[in-house]
Write a structure and sequence with these properties.
about 325 residues; eight-stranded mixed sheet; two-stranded antiparallel sheet; 12 helices; about 35% helix; about 15% strand; disordered N terminus; binds iron/sulfur cluster; binds magnesium ion
Length: about 325
Amino acid sequence: APSLADRILGRIRPPKPQSVTHAVNNVDLSIRTGEVVGLVGESGCGKSTLGRIAAGLIRPSAGRVEIDGVSVSDMDAEQARRTRLRVQMIFQDPYASLNPRRRIMDTVGEAVRIHRIVPPQDLDAYVCSQLERAGLDPSLRGRYPHQFSGGQRQRIGIARALAVNPDMLVCDEAVAALDVSIQAQVLNVFMDLREQLNLTYLFISHDLGVVEHLSDRVVVMYLGRVVETATVHELFQHPTHPYTQALLAEVPRIDVRGKRFAAIKGEIPSPMNPPSGCHFHPRCPFATDRCRSEAPALRQVAADHWSACHLTEAG
Ligand code: SF4
Ligand code: MG
């Protein structure tokens, strides 16, 4: 078995202002092998950018991604290729990433063939086993994407990702487009795979219920910065950052499933031109002059619990 992705670490500065990518600034995110990290925040906060950087789909303009302590940018081409396979991405809309004119067996088998993961004569059996693992009937492998439901298409996306033996899945709103009942099924697939394959997950979602259900640890982002991170229980029981508190306050504690973040007062400022000091200050009920001028650092507030707020620093 391949050694597991030990940690992904990025210290990232914003891309050029004309870039379409949202800025992610000085984020330092480590993910341990086998861990499920939920990444939450309003849209435009940089969650997807961070996920794509972790999956090697975007190169940070500064900073680095490390896997097993080795910086991806220091790897030779062959090492980088193999490393990219170890972190696979699952998207919100699998249909958009499935070629409508290709049978699903060809889609699932493509990277396997290109990267010679199994000998050509074993490809068909291998594809069948991947489909099965994702909960799909392999006898349907000659069909085309439009012949499947939304939930089944997401399973096709999962089978395609699994086929290259990843250590880690970056799931970007992977169940957001599905009906709630189907969401539960797909989430169960993710959790079963975690058990079976010791997969590591970066689970990006704006659904707090999903994140609470799945994650070991939660990272809260606001305008390109991590504002709070803690174990899931700690974060949901004792949120310390005013932004996290606002997010959680919008969600009734009973049955958070399927509930979305409601709007917090005030517009989300542009991530390209964020407010000075603490980016949250224009919307924060506790903001002081210091908040407007000085960016709070992420500080430890309890075991496994870090928060970036001048208030928590003061106790
Ligand atoms: Fe609010 Fe100030 Fe804390 Fe930012 S640093 S969250 S503005 S109190
Ligand atoms: Mg997004």
